[in-house]
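Researcher: Next entry in the queue.
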Amino acid sequence: MEKYFNLILKDIEERRLYIARALYEGAAKDYAEYRHGCGEIRGLSLAYETVNDLLRKLESDDDE
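Model: Structure for this entry, 64 residues:
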């Protein structure tokens, strides 16, 4: 199961980096699009932390 969580984490991180790179390179057409991208990055960061915390909890439960 750990392999699936790691795949999810990898996909989230790749998407987050893709958006960050696009914003850095000026891909946003206007401020609203820039804010949307920033919001998406924040949401992906929260999802990453949530999945990572769950993975750590599952790993620690397996150790017990």
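Model: The helical segments are 2-24, 31-63.
Researcher: Noted, moving on.
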